[in-house]
Amino acid sequence: MTYIEYVQLSPLNKIKFKFVDFFKNFGKNFVKFFVNIYYGIIRFFKGIGRSFKEVGYAFKHGNIFTKLSFLFLGVGHMASGQIIKGIMLFLIEVLFIFYMIMTGGSALYGFTTLGNLESYFQCQYLDPTTGNYVLDSNNYHFLDQASATEMCQVLHPGQSIQTSIVHCDNSFTFLLFGVLAICIIIGFVFYYISIIKGTIKLQERKEAKLHVNSFIEDVKDYLDGKFHRVLLLLPIIGVSVFTILPIIDMILMAFTNYNRATSYPRFFSWIGIDNFITLFGGGLSKSGGIFQHTFIKILGWTIIWAIFATFLNYFFGMFTAMLINKKGIKFKKIFRTFLVFSIAMPQFISLLAFNKFFAKGGIIEDILKTIGFMSSSDSLKILSETVSARVFIIIVNIWIGIPYTMLAVTGILMNVPEDLYESAQIDGASPLTVYTKITLPYVLFITGPKLITDFVGNINNFNVIFFLTNGGPQTNSYLDAGKTDLLVTWLYKLTVNKMNYSYASVIGIMIFAICAILSLIAYRHTSAVKNEEDFA
Hints:
The chain has helices at residues 3-7, 11-24, 26-61, 64-68, 75-79, 83-113, 145-155, 171-207, 215-222, 227-252, 274-281, 286-325, 332-344, 347-358, 363-370, 386-413, 418-426, 431-459, 462-468, 487-497, 501-524, 527-530; strands at 120-127, 132-135, 161-166. The radius of gyration is 32 Å and the shape is flat. By secondary structure, the protein is mainly alpha-helical. 69% of the residues lie in helices and 3% in strands. Strand 1 (120-127) and strand 2 (132-135) form a beta hairpin.
């Protein structure tokens, strides 16, 4: 369709065309997304190849001090007059070697095995002849404490028994410190390459009789022109240690059998992609089939919920802002104040209040019985039936979410040029035409990225589901989940209630993949990205 043909369409047909065009091109954009990732990986490895090529060039053309720097970092800097800097570089290398000898090597080995010896319980019984406790040499491995105590009492009847746990290998510790060791090694490799590249450049500067900075000049440079690097160093370290490292650790759990049966004090092991095979193939076991069934059902409800929660809040919030902002409406500030009350009140309190009001035996049920809409023997089933519970959640979320959109759109509407509306009135445009031609494009242009973040936020909207229904109503056809659970609340239940960390990690990876793909595809199609100069 040409641009002229598109312009001549009615507003409804334009929306229909864009809707169809989006889903028509979704497959192409989906493939393009992974193609871009592929080329990004290729560029990354090409960059690494160039770096190794530069290191080879340094070894080939470097002098004796540059070549010695391959073994002892900092020698080339010392030879070029940067004594203090060279010593510091050498000390960092020494610290890395010391770490690898003392901790890193064993951490890497532990990462590959995740431990070889389980924790177990040992039993001691009171010897009546000596009055001392004696260690029982029987095998109490693979038993819980209650079973170990019972077995020990059978073997030593009538005697005082003590059971204690013997801690051996902790797989979670092996996994965490193994990931840390790998990250340190990768970081040192990049550090090593950068130092070697800097050494050959320093040699070339000295041979060309150019100025070589002293340590004091380097310090001044980092406090002036490169001060941004100093300021960013601490946040980068913090993000790496407290965000990136735990994320990698959690992702790797998806490739283990870490669950209640294998949790601490027992150890877990690597199982490869078995959990993903279970998710996509259903697995051979009953639990594997129900895991796949639960994921498909909850994923479908999560997407439906995100669509309704995002777009209903968006358009109702926009219409509310337009209504309050309309000329001739009095007491605008009062109306806005009342609507903002739901923001001023902590969200979880509002959600818990709705839960208590509409639960069985709640205030709403009592009121309905009092006025005769319900018999005394009936009970309110809004939260106990699937369809009504889901509709209830969407409606309550509208009540909570409208004020946020209303406030955002109000500020935008105040900045729409009045001459656009005046021109439309002169041309005899209907209110619907004004909305579809002026208001909606203007608001959507500015709030397009926000709409995407709201959609992703609703996919991960934990509070509304948890405090309103706690995922209920419950069902035996799902694996540890209810009919209103989202993927994120299901993940919470698998970890906190059931300690099924491997399945939860798989779900977390799938949530990230879904959010990332949908966000990037949708963001690339927003007017704010494609036509940055519009409405300027």
